[in-house]
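In response to the reviewer comment on reproducibility (Comment 2.3), we provide here a single inverse folding case reported in full, input and output, so that an independent group could reproduce the run without further information from us. The structure tokens appear first.
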């Protein structure tokens, strides 16, 4: 389970060009109606789209899509950051397994950003990132939903991202 949380943290980093990575697969299971799918080959969507966001994602691709247990996942993200992201920026991440909340945690963006070979401050501008992450064979079967909101140190809204991944019982192994 800890590996899934780490992977989810990594994906958001790539997507926000400053936060964490969140691997998704399958159908979207998104809260609310204020959503807009992110272009590309992934089930990721922007949430809270009626609010001004500093990160505009142009495209996110996952390979393979859907992600597979025990197979490395390559995430490619393209987007524009409308303002610098500096020390003190943070991302609030919720991960649920079915209807059970597994994680509600706040991560320091500048501490996590090294996972995608970047460093703070992130300057305003265009970003194209590619990152490969390992999906452990031990990820338990079930549906995982991730909801993440990122903010600058002075609470300006960077982005809101959400999506789901569902791993079936096939190829599951504790060992």
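Designed residues, in position order:
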């Amino acid at each position: 389970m800890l590996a899934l949380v780490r992977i989810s943290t990594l994906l958001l980093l790539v997507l926000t060009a400053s936060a964490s990575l969140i691997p998704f697969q399958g159908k979207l299971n998104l809260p609310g109606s204020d959503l807009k799918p992110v272009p590309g080959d992934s089930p990721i969507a922007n949430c809270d789209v009626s609010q001004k966001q500093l990160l505009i994602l142009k495209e996110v691709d996952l390979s393979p899509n859907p992600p597979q247990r025990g197979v490395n996942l390559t995430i490619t993200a393209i987007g524009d950051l409308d303002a610098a992201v500096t020390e003190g920026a943070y991302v609030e991440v919720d991960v649920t397994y079915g209807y059970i909340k597994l994680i509600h945690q706040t991560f320091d963006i500048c501490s996590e950003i090294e996972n995608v070979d970047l460093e703070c401050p992130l300057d305003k501008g265009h970003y194209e990132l590619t990152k490969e992450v390992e999906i452990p064979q031990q990820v338990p079967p079930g549906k995982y939903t991730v909801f993440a909101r990122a903010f600058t140190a002075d609470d300006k809204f960077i982005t809101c991202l959400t999506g789901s991944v569902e791993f079936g019982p096939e190829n599951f192994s504790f060992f």
